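Technical note accompanying the year-one report. For the benefit of new consortium partners, we illustrate the data format agreed upon in the data management plan: each record pairs a sequence with a structure-token string. No post-processing was applied to the example shown here.
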Amino acid sequence: MSSDLTSTGPTIRPFRIDVPQADLDDLCLRLARTRWPDELTGIGWSYGVPVSYARELAEYWRSGFDWRAQEAALNRFDQFTTEIDAQNIHFLHVRSPEPDALPLIITHGWPGSIAEFMKIIGPLTDPRAHGGDPADAFHVVAPSIPGFGFSGPTTEPGWDLHRVARAWAELMRRLGYTRYGAQGGDSGAVISPELGRIAPGQVAGVHVNGGLGFPTGDPAEFDGLSAVELERLGQYQDEDQSGYAAIQATRPQTLAFGLTDSPAAQLAWIAEKFKEWTDPSHELPEDAVDRDQLLTDVSIYWLTGTAASSARLYKESVKSWGSAVTASAVPHGVAVFPGDPGVRRIAEREHRVVHWSEFDRGGHFAAMEAPDLLVDDIRAFFRLVR
């Protein structure tokens, strides 16, 4: 489980985030000059993001948010880039002070980024310093998905979820890790199990937050499920909340003109998902997640100009949505937070599930909303497979 960044082979380059001041000035100018749409009265969020909410959040982004402070916070984590399959790959690589730590590759989704993990990297890599057991320590590798953030943009078609998982296997090989765990949410909850199928001899276990697997539509799958489980499965048929996916899976390039030209558009496109997917007990996104962490995530999309290339992940992967996959013998753990579609029967159809947790606090962005619960569950699962 060694890792030698100076070994011969493909180049791994140190990386630091350093956004030009001109780009930050341009962002502020564009926000100040936003041409706001009209809206109907009394409709709340039912037609999308209210203008009053978007204006208030955009003004804070323009005049109250400190990108340089967030940039410095991200740069406290060791970062690198390398080229895999002709694509630039950016990743955090934070080694634990514990010599027997288990390597762990953690993967975000859309509209996430490495900024999601700012609250969990410390406890995962150095549990001793965070009141935990040093035996639970991990060496954390957190890549930006190709086309996202500092790994973007992609430059050719074909970067679907399977290809990302193959790149992750190569990244971990390149880092010298021969046995490791995988964790992820959203797209990461598909990429991480796929990594287990691609490299079963190296992946000790896979932990996901959210759903694992997709229903086939066979009525027998629904027999005997609880009301809660049936409600979770109903999310797969909720066209009202899946419109964003249909657009990104069909016309990502057309959508990207507005998102790339208008920071207000990029902000609203992402903030809506935080409204819909965070803990449903909270009224607004910033009630569920730290507002500065949310805006750090949005800023990464804007400042790297990756609205188009991140959306292309949907276009590339849509053909495999819901398709049967090879059953995996790698141990899996699942953490289901409020609003997640996780149903154990569905997960166990194609995965060896040895750990299952359900929580009444948190939501889809668990690493931001309930980092303590997520970290504890990751630790609990990997104790079974270390």
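Partners are asked to follow this layout when depositing records. Residues 1-8 have pLDDT under 50 and may be disordered.
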